[in-house]
Amino acid sequence: MTPDTMLPPPLLDALQALLGPRGLLTEHADIAPWLADWRGLYQGASPAILRPGSTEELAQAVRLCAAAGVPMVPMGGNTSMVGGATPDESGRQVIVSLARLNRIRALDPLDMTLVAEAGVVLKTAQDAAAEAGCLFPLSLGAEGTATIGGVLSTNAGGNTTVRYGNARELMLGLEVVLPDGGVIHGLRRLRKDNTGYALRHLFVGAEGTLGFITAAALRMYPRAREQEVAFCAVGSEDAALSLFRRFRDRDEGAVRAFEYMSGTGVDLAVRHIEGIAWPLGARADHCVLLDLASSRPQGGLRALAESVLEEALDAGEVLDAVIAESDAQRAALWRIRDEHPEAQKREGASVKNDVSVPVSRVPELIRRSSVALTALIPGSRPVPFGHMGDGNIHMNLEQPEAMDPAVFLARAHDIMDCVNAIVRDLEGSFSAEHGIGRLKTDMMEDWRGGAELGAMRAIKSALDPLGLMNPGKVLPGPAS
């Protein structure tokens, strides 16, 4: 029996009547592109993709699937790094795409709020805010594909967390379809609403295991009227952190992003991404991308950047630096950082370690992990990069050039365990912003066991007693 024929005929007929030809896809050619995750770690199977056009259609479809005992996998932009939106291999799980829920329902520049449906692409939300003279600050490399529902379901972090926080901090209210088809109408745009349990926070970061986020009320900020972006070569990981402290101590509110990159990571971007070149006179082993922004039209950011960089040059922390002179140059410098994942993908097999430690311990994380990983797999190439300003480093490892990719990837859990042992010693987390998905469920018992995991299981059981919402993700145990 092929996946195309595995839906019970009564359910198939009911879904067709409800959703129509645009809302139900059952041909394998239509489904196939959505059966693999972005990294190519998982290849699933599914009998159908459900594409509801409204919250009410989704609620009715969920009721039908729940009554038939059919598991459901929420799908946003399919940019998960941990297999969080990929169905399993059984062919029983339907994919529920929220791509047609793509309206911006409201935008209020006075309230500084934006109400967007789950299928709105992150870049679209950013552009809508900008057109209104505001800023929606959540920013990440996949913002041209990732959707509002997806970034909230994973509590995405991204490049500006150091100033604006994760997705959770930008969320005021949610509309959610529960696993039984009930709807929470929680799109309140209030800064203060102390009325019982804050249910909205259950669904942010739950990775679709508790229900479908269908729309969100989001915080906006005043747009930047002045911005300075600098690319710096620094002497070491410690020098990078010292530079962050200098800027933070001088004007913490001006620092919008502070990103660390290794020389190896920049080399890969230069090698594989057209139009990227080293922006400095010489290659460096350690680099920093600094982004300063102010809503004041004359915020003095250029003078701030030049003054602090001069101090750091005199102290030997910064070896060389360039400050962008135009929007095009700012975008070019950011592109070096944003293309790191794609460059690593083109170079060959790599294992991702999305981890966080206290900011003060980031240099130690990078040093110790790099030594341990190259000892574990000689010839492998550590490629640490990411959000030094908030303690989240992607401690990635690229395969040795002569090693078979499959052989290297077979060591993925050894590699993750190697990094995680150091992360635990540094009082960090084994998942900073990518989530658990399917990749890291086996780590939950060890890292979040006991009462903490027990509470998670109790919440899951209360909201999804049949285990139909994104089974096999986040919580350890057999998939439904």
What does this structure look like?
With 480 residues, this protein is an alpha+beta fold. It folds into 5 domains: 95 residues, Uridine Diphospho-n-acetylenolpyruvylglucosamine Reductase, domain 2; 119 residues, Uridine Diphospho-n-acetylenolpyruvylglucosamine Reductase, domain 3; 115 residues, Alpha-Beta Plaits, CATH 3.30.70.2190; 77 residues, 2-Layer Sandwich (Alpha-Beta Plaits), CATH 3.30.70.2740; 41 residues. Helices cover 36% and strands 20% of the residues. A hairpin with a 4-residue loop joins β18 and β19. The N terminus is likely disordered.
Summary keywords:
globular; 20% strand; Uridine Diphospho-n-acetylenolpyruvylglucosamine Reductase, domain 3; 17 helices; 8-stranded antiparallel sheet; alpha+beta; 480 residues; Alpha-Beta Plaits; Uridine Diphospho-n-acetylenolpyruvylglucosamine Reductase, domain 2
